[in-house]
Amino acid sequence: MDSRDQSSSVAVATQPAACGVFAFGPFRLDPARRRIERDGRPVQLSARAFDILLVLIRHAGAVISKSDLMARAWPGASVDEGSLRVHVAALRKALGDGNAGAKYLSTVSGQGYCFIGSVARLERAQPTPVSSTHADHLPALPRQVVGREQTIQEIAEKLTIQRFVTIVGPGGIGKTTVAVSVGHALIDEFAGQVYFLSLGEIGDAALVPDITASALGLPVRSNDPTESLAAFLRNRRMLLILDCCEHVIETTAALAERLYKEAPELHILATSRELLRVEGEHVDRLPPLAGPPEDADLRAASALTYPAVELFVKRAITGGDNFELTDANASDVGNLCRRLDGIPLAIELTAGHVCAYGIKTTVELLDKQFNLLWEGRRTALPRHRTLRATIEWSYNLLSESERVILNRLSIFVGSFTLEAARSVAGSGAADDDTITTTLASLVAKSMVAFNAGPQSSRYRLPDTTRAYAQENLAASADAGMMARRHASYFLGLLEATGDERDEDLSAIADQSGNIRSALTWCFSDQGDRRTGVALAAASIPLFFKLSLLTECQLWLTRSIKALDETDGSVRHDLALHGALGSARMLTGQIDELGVNCLNRAIALAEKIGDVPGQIGLIGRLHLLQLYIGNFDDALSTARRGEAIALTSGDSVSVARMRVLLSISCQYLGDISAARSHIEAALLHLNLEHDDYSGMALEFPQCAQTTLARILWLQGHPDQATETARRTISDVIALNDPMTLCRALPWAFGVFLWNGDLGDCEVHLDRLIAEARRLDLTILQTIGEAMKGIALLGRSETGIGLAMLKSSVEKLQSRHFSAAAGLCAPLAEALAVADHGDEALDIIDEAIARAGHRNFMVDMPDMLRAKAEVLMRKDNRNFLQAEQCLRQSLQLARRQGALGYELRTAISLARLWLRQGRRAEAHDMLAPIYGRFTEGFQTRALKAARELLAKSNSSGSFAAG
């Protein structure tokens, strides 16, 4: 127990009524001995959890505040409630709280905790019942058996029925612990006749029958006591546990089979790293302790529900005085347990050093190399004192050919297929059968894991075994050859997969670790840069699919530098530059380097006559130019793409380029031309059958969302909303996160302008989360800006304004020029919050920046927003506000943007009504309202109708 636990224990033990025993349900709690038992068996609790339980039981029925519990469990220490919740969660699990109707602990919201079980007080400690006194032939029951309770019960039941069970698993998985626990669980069943025989220290397999006879108390009178053993056991009901059979497996298997056949009352439980393969044997493969999945969002309480984490925490607590599982370190602990493959011995050895290194440093050490020499308990068997000893024990039992193949297989990172093993670890086609046979043997001996998946089967070396085998491989003559074969195999695999076949990419998505390892070798001092360049180019579709864009840029940059020295092909040059420009853009690096990369790729595609390649690259360049704010350049790029597409005669390519033309014209404020181009595109674009997969950066539903925006701008709000809703519905049905991240921001404007964000707000949180996961920095920030606008629309001003302002600042820092359009709602929100000067600065700067870049589509609305700011400032300037509104009206009318014209007219009418200029307001607003043929239930048209009614000299107005 650590020093802090000792102090807290003393504090509780010295309270009144510390003596005696508390009884509740099947439990007995002895404060003096600091022991809790369930049906006579000890229950493992941390010292602090014990103290918390003791306080609650002593005050059963009363609510104990969280602060009081923390003061008792952590006297003099400053801790948060999270630590208390972790220990209460551990308590609930240890007591089985909530299972089979048992209920002991209750959480009282906002107050604390209460023990609600029925408690009896025994004045003097009563002896707890024990299952048997006949455990002389068994090792002591292990103190900590974590996550194996169900397994122990199942094996015990199986053993009583089937008589012969072998527990199989790799070293350190806990076979002996489970076997001993099963023995104790069945000791009454066999009236104490349970014998445990450890074969691990036997050096000569021929001695197994002799040592077995001696353990059972039989005199050895012949060279082979098997006959007398069979006769002795023939009518005896007994459980014989044969532990650690793998190194004497032939002799042990023969003995076990004969005894099983000739002694019908004998039950045999064996443990081995491979099957005995004899008559009567039933196998129980011991799985690793369950740990959290890689993508789990862990907190301390949720992490403790995984047995691997529970074991880690218990071992770390006993290993030192400064470990606490917290929300902050839960993910690191989960990662460690996952990296250790859920192997209890590896977890215990690693956890025992956490107090010396700390969690963060331990994770770093594990990332760099497995420390195979970390020592465990001195009382452990020699083969369990270090990870190295555990693995060497199994490794030394392999044949020479098995060792060679195991070492070669360590070149693989994570899983690999049989085909991969044959190609890399074999010695040619004639060696295929040898590889297959050897792999099967290594799986049987628990050195390699096997998973038969629905699509393809995979093999995998546990990380600890792989680290050991890698050392051997590095010291052998095979190291260079294996690295070269490994890289060549994955190059061939990727080239055979193709560029953008999604189903094929999904099939090899789990091979990113192998590809990363191959690339690392290729660009090392001993590597092959020519293969590295080809491998990097072939890896592009997979890296993009997995959204490993930052890492992809690393390999692309290294490959581009190596192009000259490797005399790389034009196609590699094209692929590398095109992907680098795209990856930089998607990760928020909005700069001319990306433009240059894409221009070079387009030129190379033109050089080799790759028209589809040119079309795709032009789409990416166009989007990057929009991001940067080179709107005139973007229009020129779209026209260039249209000319190429027309020459090719590909109607789909022509349609794509006309979508780009429509977007460019819209940004430049030419709404009529934008409508013309989008209608021309829709004549040829088949959204159901066109292929927008892979790295194509056009929005999959880009044509429809572009049309929706144009419809709203031209004064068709109902058609715009219907089109936008249908498009978003189609996008959601696709269940493609990338598509959602591209489409929703483009459609958002329609819902915002109509004042109806409910249609898309429900999807904003998902957009933000998916963009963050996919490393789409710009789209994530745009999503956060839209979320801020939505919050402002629900009058959640504080958080909404902060989110919108932060997002705009981030976009501006990344030189995202279209962020100017977001400055209008930001400036208006700041003005409402009495930050008029700041609002005016922001909108003035946005208008200037937009004018410089020729970003005209939102200019009418920015001028309207500036007028609203001027009318809300402390020193209000109605004259300048009116000038801005008149300018906005003229520009919107010139652009053909009736939607913006109405928004501005509403602001101007309100100003004039405030000044008593009712007739002017009516005469200005009425013609604009009259040009609408739909959308009369939208917020803007309702507002216009109300203003017209107020401005009408008769006091009434009939809606059209």
UniProtKB/TrEMBL annotation:
This is Transcriptional regulator. GO terms for biological process: phosphorelay signal transduction system; regulation of DNA-templated transcription. SUPFAM superfamilies: C-terminal effector domain of the bipartite response regulators, P-loop containing nucleoside triphosphate hydrolases, TPR-like. It comes from Bradyrhizobium neotropicale. GO terms for molecular function: ADP binding; DNA binding; identical protein binding. Residues 19-117 bind DNA. InterPro entries: HTH_77, NB-ARC, OmpR/PhoB-type_DNA-bd, P-loop_NTPase, Sig_transdc_resp-reg_C-effctor, TPR-4, TPR-like_helical_dom_sf, WH-like_DNA-bd_sf. The keyword Nucleus does not apply. Residues 19-117 form the OmpR/PhoB-type domain. Keywords: DNA-binding.
